Amino acid sequence: MVKKMKKEFACCLLVSMMMVSGCLTEKIDETIDDLVTDDYQFVDDGELIIVTYDVSGLTDTMISTFENDTGYDVKLIKLDDAGSILDHLMQYKGVQIADLALGLDNTYLQTALDNGVLVEHIAQNIPELDEKALIPYDGPYAVPFDQGYMCLNYDTQIVDGVNYTVPTSLWDLTEDEWKGKVVFPSPETSSPGRAFMTATTDYFANDNDSTTDWTDWWSAMAANDVIITSGWGEAYETHYTGGYGEWIDGHVGDAHIVVSYCHSPGVESWYNGNWTKSAALDLPRSAFHQVEYAAAVHGGNLNSSSEFIEYLLSEQVNNNMPTENFMYPVLNGSDLPEDGGYRYHSVIPAHPAEVSAEEIAQNMESWLEDWNRAMVDA
Amino acid sequence: MLEMFKKVANASAVTIFILLIIVPLWLALDRLIWVAGPDMTNWFSALNENYISKEVVGFTFLQATLSTILTVFIGLPIAWQLGRYEWPFQSFIKSILTMPFVMPSIVAAIGFLNLMEIYDLRSNENTWFTILILAHAWFNLSLVIRFCEPVLSTLDPRLEEQIKLLPNGQSFLDRIKHFWAPLLLPSVAAAACMTFVFSFTSFALVKLITLGENTIESMMASIGSSAGIEGYQVSRNEIILGGSIIQFTVLLISLWLMSYLQQKRQSLLPKASEKIAKKRSRYGWFVVGPAIIFAIAPLLAILVDSFRVQTREQDNVTESWSTEGWEYAFKETVSLSSGWDALINSLSYAFVTLAIALPLGWILAQTIKDLEVKSPKLARIIDVTTMLPFAVSSVMIGLGVTIGMIKINPEFFYQLWFTPVIAHVMITTPFVVRIILPALRSIEPAYDECAMTLGVTPFKRLISIKIPMLRGSIIIAAIFTLAMSMGEFGASWVVTRNSDWTTLPIMIDTIREAYKPITNTASNAIASVLMLIALVLFTWAEKFRPKRDGGMF
């Protein structure tokens, strides 16, 4: 009897294991893959679904104007960050729900391109764009809509040369003085974090020290209790002492150096009537030029997404990027406003990291694995 | 003919349950294994080899253990006071102290965040873990009271008098060791088991209170969006598989232990009426008073903060009374759903869930009850199967729906308003079965047999005998289903974030934007609505609860 029961149990286990062997998933995915064809067809359903993160530039007024001008009904799928946008596009590959992806940056774009989740847009009226914005990618699948440099920001009231020394090298941050006082968003979950990690690969490849590499620095930072947050917001608003976070409930204020934009002090100053205590640290090759893209999604409404791309690059919208989205515009000849010390307090790095889009595309996966190992093994 | 109809109904209920509950989980598991590979050692080692998951398992166990200890430590003296002494407005006090358990976890999280801000603890990272443990204790306090207070209040006082005469009962400590401890231990352990389960799978409280720390549950939710895609973020699939297996095993063991302890709790000692003369406790208010304040404080903080608006002008932050937060919460914009939409969605999902889960759970309970006589083995199998979702966390259920079901036809499920209901039915149906099954078992078959002898039709017997006898349990099950669906956060967070079908708990979380103070007030306004709905449902359910009920429902 017991033997029989054991047999039955073994059979049940075997059947269950066979059931979860992935056969069914493979079948479902094959069916979905069949739906992806080169011959692009779409139905203009009068709708525009934008998958994005919390892009503050997408104001109600801006969207209402677009709706009134074009007759399209706009819906937003708001996700956490650029990584979540890519996740969403990958999850719905072949059967996309969104028409336009807004917010993928040059550290994520190539993965989206490699996986065929984007389609060539048909936007016609695209003005002349800033050359720099086209360096990482200048193809028909994605159009830059804003840009900026990621770099270290520090609190000038604390990092004043007396209490703390202004770092002149990234290695300085591994000193005891900086133990637990530096905050970075994680490159695994945040695009600013990913951008900064990319910059460090270039920084340490060119630091004339062949005995250590960028992963050694990250291990040393982990050993020095660097604070890693899931997103930029938590790093800048909760932990950084030099920014607007100190006026927000829940501000901890335990870090005096943070990864943010080189123009973040300019934004602070613009808000505070030409005053800020935050400054960007321009260390050679430690800043990363980040470009954010608008891209038509494969399977989405190409008409509505292309019209929105044109709208986003129109002068009336794109020139407002510095004050609506707190990023540089991409139109040729445009710049940050001078009001409130915005431009004065914003730094354009003299020697940003030089990492090509191809390098990023080829190495991002392995860089993330190396970063993970460096942090875990520290 | 009727017998045939009954058999078809029973078989259909079992089939629907399996389709609704097992299939999504099985599909999700199938997909995760397809991406991660079948080597189980990789799944578990991935937990330690990834920065995102390293220390998560340890943190989950640590916070759940400490939460359980603190809950018992706070709850036991309260249960003692309520059970052993006479109190003015006793049932009202009991209701207040047991109310936190029915509050949605996101409401509890917002309440504690508000308290932290009042006492300026939010800015001190070192307090976050302690606050989390306290919040778990607040949430689960009622479990200790509900499990232990009936044992204390109905125990014949003569027994204690008798034990005082024995050598082992001379001192108070002796009586605790030889009398109270053995008597209360099964109840305390059962409450501790449930507290451990709820703390172990905590999501909303961890997500909002302890930034940077994760339980297995919150970690799975945060990386779930990239799971199930071939060749993409493979390690995340391994982490989810490893994490969910640990979670499933821990929950299964806890539930088994809980079920074993429940049987042990069936005390054979003589019971007395609750109305037996009890003394008033001289110092009891020092225990019950703070407990009442502890239970009410987070909820009051939510209501008050929903009318407090911050104004920030450069270095100056001022607060004033205003209804702006409520106006903001219920105003529709392109980028933000209105509170009305969230309320309508939540109510509609709750009622649709009720319309499915209640009859489904009832028929399943009836099937188990019928089979207990004819085929006890099959009854046991179905009984265990209906309990299976208890061992699966809400986030895993959410992932079951997203990477299991939605993948079959993403466009269909995305546009289907009904999709979140699948997760809600998966979560609530087992509770309905657990509430109605004991009630069905307690009905004397003689009533039905007498009516049958008198020639009463089956339909009339159902209307005039069964339903009136089950009325209390049905109402409690219905209210519980509504309350659970309205406050459900984990599965909804995973399922609805890719759609615009937002619910009240999801809106409370998403509306908060640090740099806009008004959104904080608005999230308190939405939390107040959810809290008030939960309170109304709880008060209503209390009317139908058996007086000596010692369970969690």
Task: Pick out its properties.
heterodimer; A: 378 residues; alpha/beta; D-Maltodextrin-Binding Protein, domain 2; 2 domains; nine-stranded mixed beta sheet; 14 helices; 38% helix; B: 553 residues; mainly alpha; MetI-like fold; two-stranded antiparallel sheet; 23 helices; 73% helix; globular
Low-confidence region ranges of chain B? none
> What is the helix fraction of residues of chain A, given as a range?
25-40%
Domains counted in the coordinates of chain B: how many? 2
* Whole-number count of domains of chain A: 2
As laid out across the biggest beta sheet of chain B, the strand order is 1-2
Give average pLDDT of chain A, whole number.
89
Folded structure, characterized:
The complex is a heterodimer of chains A (378) and B (553). Chain A has 2 domains: 35-147 and 291-324, D-Maltodextrin-Binding Protein, domain 2; 148-289 and 339-377, Periplasmic binding protein-like II (D-Maltodextrin-Binding Protein, domain 2). With 378 residues, chain A is α/β, with parallel strands linked by helices. In chain A, strands 1, 2, 3, 4, 5, 6, 7, 8 and 9 form a 9-stranded mixed sheet that branches. The mean pLDDT of chain A is 89. In chain A, helix 8 (214-223) packs parallel to helix 14. In chain A, 38% of the residues lie in helices and 15% in strands. Chain B has helices at 2-36, 40-49, 56-84, 90-98, 105-118, 128-153, 157-165, 172-200, 204-209, 216-223, 234-264, 285-305, 324-329, 339-374, 376-387, 394-405, 410-415, 419-442, 445-453, 458-487, 490-496, 504-510, 517-542, and strands at 308-313, 316-321. Chain B contains 23 helices and 2 strands. Chain B has 553 residues and is mainly alpha-helical. The model of chain B has no long low-confidence stretch (mean pLDDT 87). Chain B has a two-stranded antiparallel ribbon. Chain B has 2 domains: 1-35 and 333-553, MetI-like fold; 39-305, MetI-like fold (Orthogonal Bundle), CATH 1.10.3720. In chain B, helix 1 crosses helix 16. The two termini of chain B are 37 Å apart. Classes of the chains: A alpha/beta (378), B mainly alpha (553). The interface between A and B is large, with 61 and 57 residues.
